[in-house]
Amino acid sequence: MEAGLSAADQSIEGPLKGHHHETYVISLPGRAGRYKLREPRRGLLWFDRRCFASEEELLRTLAGRVSRIPEIVEVERGILLQGFIEGRTLGQGVLPSKALSERHRRQLGGLFGELVSFDVRDVAAQRVCDGADLPLNGDSCGFLKRLLRFTEHRVYREHGAPYRALFEDLGVRDGALGGLARQAESLTERAFALVHGDLHRRNFIVDATGDLWTIDWELAMIGDPLYDLATHLHLMRYSEKEAERVGRDWRRTVEERRPECVKGWDTDLAVLLAYKRAQSVYTDVIRAALALRGSDGRPDWQRLPRLAWRIKGALGAAREPLGLTAEPGVREVIAAYVRWFRDHPPTGTVPAP
Asked: What pTM value is reported for the model?
Protein backbone atom coordinates (compact mmCIF):
# COMPACT_ATOMS: atom_id res chain seq x y z
CA MET A 1 0.00 0.00 0.00
CA GLU A 2 1.02 3.61 -0.58
CA ALA A 3 1.88 6.56 1.64
CA GLY A 4 3.29 4.46 4.43
CA LEU A 5 -0.09 2.95 5.30
CA SER A 6 -0.25 -0.53 6.75
CA ALA A 7 -3.18 -2.91 6.43
CA ALA A 8 -2.59 -3.78 10.09
CA ASP A 9 -3.43 -0.20 11.11
CA GLN A 10 -6.67 -0.21 13.08
CA SER A 11 -7.80 2.93 11.24
CA ILE A 12 -7.96 0.95 7.98
CA GLU A 13 -11.05 -0.98 6.95
CA GLY A 14 -11.01 -3.35 4.02
CA PRO A 15 -10.54 -4.60 1.48
CA LEU A 16 -14.12 -3.77 0.51
CA LYS A 17 -15.92 -5.67 -2.21
CA GLY A 18 -15.42 -4.20 -5.68
CA HIS A 19 -14.87 -5.42 -9.21
CA HIS A 20 -12.01 -3.31 -10.51
CA HIS A 21 -10.16 -2.46 -7.28
CA GLU A 22 -9.46 -3.52 -3.74
CA THR A 23 -10.65 -0.59 -1.67
CA TYR A 24 -9.48 0.36 1.81
CA VAL A 25 -11.23 2.97 3.95
CA ILE A 26 -8.97 5.03 6.19
CA SER A 27 -9.11 7.93 8.62
CA LEU A 28 -6.63 10.77 8.23
CA PRO A 29 -5.18 12.65 11.19
CA GLY A 30 -6.68 16.12 11.51
CA ARG A 31 -9.43 15.49 8.95
CA ALA A 32 -13.08 14.72 9.51
CA GLY A 33 -14.65 11.84 7.64
CA ARG A 34 -12.98 8.85 6.02
CA TYR A 35 -11.22 8.33 2.70
CA LYS A 36 -10.74 5.58 0.14
CA LEU A 37 -7.41 4.18 -0.96
CA ARG A 38 -7.76 1.87 -3.94
CA GLU A 39 -5.45 -0.65 -5.54
CA PRO A 40 -6.25 -2.11 -8.99
CA ARG A 41 -6.89 -5.84 -9.01
CA ARG A 42 -4.13 -7.72 -10.77
CA GLY A 43 -4.88 -9.51 -14.02
CA LEU A 44 -8.33 -7.97 -14.27
CA LEU A 45 -10.08 -8.01 -17.64
CA TRP A 46 -11.68 -4.68 -18.57
CA PHE A 47 -14.96 -5.06 -20.45
CA ASP A 48 -15.59 -1.33 -20.92
CA ARG A 49 -13.64 1.33 -22.76
CA ARG A 50 -11.73 3.70 -20.47
CA CYS A 51 -11.08 7.34 -21.24
CA PHE A 52 -9.31 8.92 -18.26
CA ALA A 53 -6.00 7.88 -16.71
CA SER A 54 -7.09 8.68 -13.15
CA GLU A 55 -10.55 8.72 -11.62
CA GLU A 56 -9.22 10.91 -8.82
CA GLU A 57 -7.84 13.48 -11.26
CA LEU A 58 -11.19 13.55 -13.05
CA LEU A 59 -13.09 14.05 -9.80
CA ARG A 60 -10.77 16.89 -8.88
CA THR A 61 -11.64 18.70 -12.12
CA LEU A 62 -15.37 18.13 -11.51
CA ALA A 63 -15.36 19.69 -8.03
CA GLY A 64 -17.83 22.59 -7.97
CA ARG A 65 -19.35 21.52 -11.30
CA VAL A 66 -21.08 18.28 -10.34
CA SER A 67 -22.97 17.97 -7.07
CA ARG A 68 -22.58 15.19 -4.50
CA ILE A 69 -19.46 13.46 -5.74
CA PRO A 70 -16.49 12.35 -3.60
CA GLU A 71 -14.03 15.07 -2.63
CA ILE A 72 -10.35 14.54 -3.40
CA VAL A 73 -7.46 15.14 -1.01
CA GLU A 74 -3.76 14.95 -1.85
CA VAL A 75 -2.05 13.30 1.13
CA GLU A 76 1.40 13.33 -0.48
CA ARG A 77 2.63 14.64 -3.78
CA GLY A 78 0.80 12.67 -6.48
CA ILE A 79 -1.14 10.51 -4.00
CA LEU A 80 -4.84 11.33 -4.19
CA LEU A 81 -7.57 9.86 -2.00
CA GLN A 82 -11.32 9.96 -2.51
CA GLY A 83 -13.68 10.92 0.25
CA PHE A 84 -15.69 7.92 1.46
CA ILE A 85 -19.41 8.60 1.24
CA GLU A 86 -21.09 7.21 4.35
CA GLY A 87 -24.47 5.62 3.71
CA ARG A 88 -26.07 2.76 1.83
CA THR A 89 -26.14 1.91 -1.84
CA LEU A 90 -29.35 2.68 -3.67
CA GLY A 91 -29.93 -1.03 -4.25
CA GLN A 92 -29.34 -2.21 -0.70
CA GLY A 93 -32.32 -4.14 0.60
CA VAL A 94 -34.63 -3.40 -2.35
CA LEU A 95 -35.80 -5.28 -5.42
CA PRO A 96 -33.51 -4.73 -8.44
CA SER A 97 -36.36 -3.13 -10.41
CA LYS A 98 -37.56 -0.77 -7.67
CA ALA A 99 -38.51 2.71 -8.88
CA LEU A 100 -36.65 5.75 -7.60
CA SER A 101 -38.29 8.05 -5.10
CA GLU A 102 -39.42 11.44 -6.37
CA ARG A 103 -36.50 13.06 -4.53
CA HIS A 104 -33.92 10.74 -6.04
CA ARG A 105 -35.41 11.11 -9.51
CA ARG A 106 -34.98 14.87 -9.22
CA GLN A 107 -31.39 14.47 -8.07
CA LEU A 108 -30.65 12.03 -10.87
CA GLY A 109 -32.09 14.53 -13.32
CA GLY A 110 -29.90 17.20 -11.76
CA LEU A 111 -26.85 15.01 -12.34
CA PHE A 112 -27.73 14.55 -16.02
CA GLY A 113 -28.21 18.30 -16.34
CA GLU A 114 -24.87 19.12 -14.71
CA LEU A 115 -22.99 16.69 -16.93
CA VAL A 116 -24.09 18.47 -20.10
CA SER A 117 -23.74 21.99 -18.71
CA PHE A 118 -20.00 22.60 -18.97
CA ASP A 119 -17.57 22.63 -21.86
CA VAL A 120 -15.82 19.26 -22.09
CA ARG A 121 -12.65 21.09 -23.13
CA ASP A 122 -12.46 22.29 -19.52
CA VAL A 123 -12.06 18.71 -18.26
CA ALA A 124 -8.32 18.81 -17.66
CA ALA A 125 -7.84 15.21 -16.49
CA GLN A 126 -5.38 13.22 -18.59
CA ARG A 127 -6.94 11.06 -21.30
CA VAL A 128 -5.74 7.55 -22.12
CA CYS A 129 -7.65 7.08 -25.38
CA ASP A 130 -5.71 7.42 -28.57
CA GLY A 131 -6.46 10.82 -30.10
CA ALA A 132 -6.91 9.24 -33.53
CA ASP A 133 -9.59 7.00 -32.03
CA LEU A 134 -11.71 9.84 -30.67
CA PRO A 135 -14.86 10.76 -32.62
CA LEU A 136 -15.45 14.40 -33.48
CA ASN A 137 -17.78 16.32 -31.19
CA GLY A 138 -21.35 15.42 -32.10
CA ASP A 139 -20.46 12.30 -34.09
CA SER A 140 -22.87 9.95 -32.32
CA CYS A 141 -22.37 7.34 -35.04
CA GLY A 142 -18.60 7.37 -34.57
CA PHE A 143 -19.00 7.19 -30.79
CA LEU A 144 -21.13 4.04 -30.95
CA LYS A 145 -18.91 2.45 -33.59
CA ARG A 146 -15.89 2.86 -31.32
CA LEU A 147 -17.78 1.16 -28.50
CA LEU A 148 -18.74 -1.64 -30.87
CA ARG A 149 -15.12 -1.98 -32.02
CA PHE A 150 -13.96 -2.22 -28.40
CA THR A 151 -16.51 -4.95 -27.66
CA GLU A 152 -15.69 -6.81 -30.87
CA HIS A 153 -11.91 -6.69 -30.68
CA ARG A 154 -10.92 -6.24 -27.03
CA VAL A 155 -13.69 -8.18 -25.30
CA TYR A 156 -14.63 -10.85 -27.85
CA ARG A 157 -11.44 -11.42 -29.87
CA GLU A 158 -8.83 -10.76 -27.14
CA HIS A 159 -10.44 -11.47 -23.75
CA GLY A 160 -12.87 -13.94 -25.28
CA ALA A 161 -10.40 -15.87 -27.43
CA PRO A 162 -10.26 -18.87 -25.03
CA TYR A 163 -14.07 -18.91 -24.96
CA ARG A 164 -14.71 -18.83 -28.72
CA ALA A 165 -16.18 -22.36 -28.73
CA LEU A 166 -18.42 -21.46 -25.80
CA PHE A 167 -19.78 -18.41 -27.61
CA GLU A 168 -20.47 -20.49 -30.72
CA ASP A 169 -22.18 -23.19 -28.65
CA LEU A 170 -24.44 -20.48 -27.22
CA GLY A 171 -25.28 -19.25 -30.72
CA VAL A 172 -23.09 -16.10 -30.78
CA ARG A 173 -21.14 -16.12 -34.05
CA ASP A 174 -18.37 -14.00 -35.48
CA GLY A 175 -19.72 -10.74 -36.86
CA ALA A 176 -22.77 -10.75 -34.57
CA LEU A 177 -22.34 -7.01 -33.95
CA GLY A 178 -22.54 -6.15 -37.65
CA GLY A 179 -26.23 -5.32 -37.51
CA LEU A 180 -25.67 -2.79 -34.74
CA ALA A 181 -22.83 -1.21 -36.70
CA ARG A 182 -25.25 -0.67 -39.57
CA GLN A 183 -27.86 0.81 -37.22
CA ALA A 184 -25.25 3.23 -35.90
CA GLU A 185 -25.23 4.92 -39.29
CA SER A 186 -28.72 6.25 -38.61
CA LEU A 187 -27.87 8.02 -35.33
CA THR A 188 -28.52 11.76 -35.07
CA GLU A 189 -25.61 14.08 -34.36
CA ARG A 190 -25.72 15.25 -30.72
CA ALA A 191 -23.37 17.58 -28.90
CA PHE A 192 -20.96 15.60 -26.71
CA ALA A 193 -20.74 15.86 -22.95
CA LEU A 194 -19.12 14.08 -20.04
CA VAL A 195 -20.86 10.76 -19.38
CA HIS A 196 -20.46 8.71 -16.21
CA GLY A 197 -20.86 5.45 -18.11
CA ASP A 198 -21.87 3.16 -15.23
CA LEU A 199 -24.93 4.58 -13.46
CA HIS A 200 -26.32 1.54 -11.65
CA ARG A 201 -27.67 1.12 -8.12
CA ARG A 202 -24.35 0.25 -6.46
CA ASN A 203 -22.80 3.43 -7.80
CA PHE A 204 -25.35 5.61 -6.02
CA ILE A 205 -25.01 6.17 -2.27
CA VAL A 206 -27.85 7.47 -0.12
CA ASP A 207 -26.41 9.46 2.79
CA ALA A 208 -27.86 9.97 6.27
CA THR A 209 -29.97 12.92 5.09
CA GLY A 210 -31.42 10.96 2.16
CA ASP A 211 -29.43 12.67 -0.59
CA LEU A 212 -28.09 10.75 -3.60
CA TRP A 213 -24.32 10.73 -4.25
CA THR A 214 -22.64 9.39 -7.38
CA ILE A 215 -19.46 7.33 -7.04
CA ASP A 216 -17.17 5.15 -9.22
CA TRP A 217 -16.35 7.44 -12.16
CA GLU A 218 -13.63 5.21 -13.62
CA LEU A 219 -15.63 4.44 -16.78
CA ALA A 220 -16.43 8.10 -17.48
CA MET A 221 -15.77 9.38 -20.99
CA ILE A 222 -16.48 12.23 -23.36
CA GLY A 223 -19.22 11.25 -25.78
CA ASP A 224 -22.89 11.00 -26.62
CA PRO A 225 -24.88 12.07 -23.52
CA LEU A 226 -27.70 9.71 -24.52
CA TYR A 227 -25.35 6.82 -23.72
CA ASP A 228 -25.64 7.63 -20.00
CA LEU A 229 -29.42 7.33 -20.15
CA ALA A 230 -29.23 4.06 -22.10
CA THR A 231 -26.69 2.57 -19.69
CA HIS A 232 -28.74 3.66 -16.68
CA LEU A 233 -31.99 2.20 -18.03
CA HIS A 234 -30.28 -1.06 -18.99
CA LEU A 235 -28.61 -1.55 -15.62
CA MET A 236 -31.51 -0.41 -13.41
CA ARG A 237 -34.05 -2.93 -14.77
CA TYR A 238 -36.96 -0.55 -14.29
CA SER A 239 -40.49 -1.44 -15.24
CA GLU A 240 -41.48 -0.15 -18.67
CA LYS A 241 -43.56 2.62 -17.09
CA GLU A 242 -40.71 3.77 -14.84
CA ALA A 243 -38.17 3.63 -17.68
CA GLU A 244 -40.40 5.92 -19.73
CA ARG A 245 -40.70 8.32 -16.79
CA VAL A 246 -36.93 8.46 -16.25
CA GLY A 247 -36.45 8.98 -19.99
CA ARG A 248 -38.84 11.93 -19.98
CA ASP A 249 -37.04 13.39 -16.95
CA TRP A 250 -33.70 13.08 -18.80
CA ARG A 251 -35.07 14.77 -21.91
CA ARG A 252 -36.67 17.64 -19.99
CA THR A 253 -33.63 18.34 -17.80
CA VAL A 254 -31.03 18.05 -20.55
CA GLU A 255 -33.11 20.08 -22.99
CA GLU A 256 -33.34 22.91 -20.45
CA ARG A 257 -29.58 22.95 -20.01
CA ARG A 258 -28.36 22.17 -23.54
CA PRO A 259 -30.99 21.50 -26.22
CA GLU A 260 -28.46 20.22 -28.79
CA CYS A 261 -27.84 17.17 -26.57
CA VAL A 262 -31.35 15.76 -26.99
CA LYS A 263 -31.67 15.82 -30.78
CA GLY A 264 -33.11 12.54 -32.04
CA TRP A 265 -33.08 11.01 -28.57
CA ASP A 266 -36.48 9.32 -28.85
CA THR A 267 -35.45 7.21 -31.87
CA ASP A 268 -31.75 6.75 -31.06
CA LEU A 269 -32.29 5.50 -27.50
CA ALA A 270 -33.45 2.12 -28.82
CA VAL A 271 -30.19 1.65 -30.75
CA LEU A 272 -28.03 2.41 -27.72
CA LEU A 273 -30.14 0.13 -25.54
CA ALA A 274 -29.68 -2.63 -28.10
CA TYR A 275 -25.91 -2.16 -27.86
CA LYS A 276 -26.03 -2.41 -24.06
CA ARG A 277 -27.99 -5.68 -24.29
CA ALA A 278 -25.50 -7.09 -26.77
CA GLN A 279 -22.52 -5.93 -24.73
CA SER A 280 -23.91 -7.71 -21.67
CA VAL A 281 -23.80 -11.05 -23.48
CA TYR A 282 -20.07 -10.78 -24.20
CA THR A 283 -19.33 -9.62 -20.67
CA ASP A 284 -21.58 -12.11 -18.87
CA VAL A 285 -20.50 -15.20 -20.83
CA ILE A 286 -16.83 -14.62 -19.98
CA ARG A 287 -17.45 -13.56 -16.38
CA ALA A 288 -19.60 -16.64 -15.76
CA ALA A 289 -16.80 -18.90 -16.97
CA LEU A 290 -14.33 -17.08 -14.73
CA ALA A 291 -16.72 -17.23 -11.76
CA LEU A 292 -17.15 -20.99 -12.17
CA ARG A 293 -13.46 -21.74 -11.83
CA GLY A 294 -12.37 -22.45 -8.27
CA SER A 295 -8.97 -21.56 -6.82
CA ASP A 296 -7.62 -24.86 -8.18
CA GLY A 297 -8.88 -24.07 -11.66
CA ARG A 298 -11.62 -26.69 -11.51
CA PRO A 299 -15.27 -25.67 -12.00
CA ASP A 300 -17.60 -25.13 -9.06
CA TRP A 301 -20.63 -26.85 -10.55
CA GLN A 302 -22.94 -25.74 -7.73
CA ARG A 303 -22.79 -22.19 -9.06
CA LEU A 304 -23.66 -23.18 -12.62
CA PRO A 305 -27.51 -23.21 -12.46
CA ARG A 306 -27.72 -19.65 -11.11
CA LEU A 307 -25.20 -18.37 -13.63
CA ALA A 308 -26.99 -20.24 -16.43
CA TRP A 309 -30.23 -18.39 -15.66
CA ARG A 310 -28.36 -15.11 -15.98
CA ILE A 311 -26.79 -16.10 -19.31
CA LYS A 312 -30.16 -17.29 -20.62
CA GLY A 313 -31.66 -13.91 -19.73
CA ALA A 314 -28.83 -11.97 -21.38
CA LEU A 315 -29.09 -14.04 -24.56
CA GLY A 316 -32.85 -13.62 -24.68
CA ALA A 317 -32.63 -9.85 -24.28
CA ALA A 318 -29.98 -9.61 -27.01
CA ARG A 319 -31.50 -12.05 -29.46
CA GLU A 320 -32.50 -9.36 -31.96
CA PRO A 321 -29.41 -7.08 -31.65
CA LEU A 322 -27.06 -10.05 -32.10
CA GLY A 323 -29.16 -11.74 -34.78
CA LEU A 324 -29.41 -14.98 -32.80
CA THR A 325 -31.41 -17.68 -34.53
CA ALA A 326 -32.55 -19.28 -31.28
CA GLU A 327 -32.63 -18.59 -27.54
CA PRO A 328 -30.98 -21.39 -25.53
CA GLY A 329 -32.83 -22.67 -22.49
CA VAL A 330 -31.18 -23.05 -19.08
CA ARG A 331 -30.36 -26.72 -19.72
CA GLU A 332 -28.74 -25.83 -23.02
CA VAL A 333 -26.66 -23.11 -21.37
CA ILE A 334 -25.57 -25.53 -18.63
CA ALA A 335 -24.63 -28.13 -21.25
CA ALA A 336 -22.59 -25.55 -23.20
CA TYR A 337 -20.52 -24.66 -20.12
CA VAL A 338 -20.04 -28.32 -19.20
CA ARG A 339 -18.78 -29.07 -22.71
CA TRP A 340 -16.46 -26.06 -22.67
CA PHE A 341 -14.93 -27.00 -19.31
CA ARG A 342 -14.45 -30.59 -20.43
CA ASP A 343 -12.51 -29.32 -23.44
CA HIS A 344 -10.49 -26.84 -21.33
CA PRO A 345 -9.54 -28.67 -18.12
CA PRO A 346 -6.79 -27.21 -15.89
CA THR A 347 -5.17 -30.63 -15.43
CA GLY A 348 -6.52 -34.05 -16.27
CA THR A 349 -10.23 -34.59 -16.69
CA VAL A 350 -12.85 -32.23 -15.30
CA PRO A 351 -15.65 -34.17 -13.59
CA ALA A 352 -19.14 -33.47 -14.86
CA PRO A 353 -21.80 -32.15 -12.47
From this structure: 0.91
